[in-house]
Amino acid sequence: MEKYFLIILVLFVSCNTETVTPTTQSTQTTSPKMLPELSTGTKSDFKKIDYLPEGITNVFGVEPSKENGFYKFSFPRTDLNVTLDGVKIDPKLAFTTWFSFMPHDSAGSSGMLMGDIVLLETEFKNVLKRIEEKSIDISAIHNHLLGEKPKIMYLHISAMGKPVDLFNNLKEILSVTATPLNSSSTDTAQTIDWSNTETVLGITGKSEGKLLKFSIPRNEKIQDAGIEIPENFGINSIINFQRIGNKAAITGDFVLIPSEVTTVQKMLTKGNIVVTALHNHMLFEQPRLFFMHFWAVDDPEKIAVVLNDVLRNTNHAIKRK
Q1: Where are the beta strands (DSSP E) in 192-289?
Q2: Do the Cβ atoms of 213 and 205 come closer than 8 Å?
Q3: 124-134 and 163-174 helices cross at what angle (nearest 10)?
């Protein structure tokens, strides 16, 4: 009797073990739930700035651009002569100092500033000293490219306060650099037909002489220090092309959530686009963002195929086909 009981027990355990495996496999094939970092709420509808605080245009002697929810000063480092891989890089491709200000009240008397200062290594010591004196916060110091000559570094900053005071402080900081504050941005290059590149990439860019620029927002609502920040306030993915004969130099940075970083790095590398940097630009943003910079010189349509794949495999605000 005991012998028959043991045989039945073994068969029972064996049958139960066999039924567990299919259940585990079917669980692995179910659709993944939305990642926590994507569940950030609905974006606000920021309106284009239609006013500027008194005295703002007198600080740098130029008018800032009026954007959706903020205004922005841009200063290309036209004083620099930078080369990489035999390419003389247009300052507006990769070397533009910029400051954006988002008002927190209807009068625009206070708010949040974010920016990126383009510097030679020899300019750093004096700039850091001035920043400390003016109580501007540093959120990142790093490269964007690799192997360029001379070496260019980027100093990301943030601050809260009155706009005229903040911009006057920044003007004093820039005064210890060779940054042109009123340089002409006129480009006499022939107009270039970028239509094939735009078709392959699947989005329309902004043409500036020999340059083609794209600024692509993410779908998430993004906050910094608990405050929602508008699209293009330093949080859009940037793709820039510069025509070089039949080829193009491309650079920029993809704004990524942590779960996308490895996938995008592999996609770029496989497409012969060099990942030149991976880092933060801010300190208290939600969701956590990483900025992946890249560089390549190749056929623009060939590059656009790779970049198109990246955009459509990440949570960027573009139409999916």
Answers
A1: 206-208, 211-216, 223-224, 227-228, 237-244, 247-256, 274-279, 285-286
A2: yes
A3: 160
Do 166 and 215 lie in a common domain?
Answer: no
Number of folded domains in the chain? 2
Same domain as 112, residue 62: yes
pTM: 0.86
Residues 28-75 pLDDT 10s: 333 334 565 666 788 999 999 998 999 999 999 999 999 999 999 999
Task: Examine residue 8 and state whether it is found in any structural domain, yes or no.
Answer: no
Within 13 Å, how many C-alpha atoms sit on residue 249's CB side?
Answer: 18
Return the structure tokens found at 59: 């600080």
For the chain, the distance separating the N- and C-terminal CA atoms, rounded to the nearest angstrom, is 68
Q: β-strand 211-216 against 237-244: which pairing, if any?
A: antiparallel
Q: Give the residue numbers spanning the domain of 273.
A: 191-321
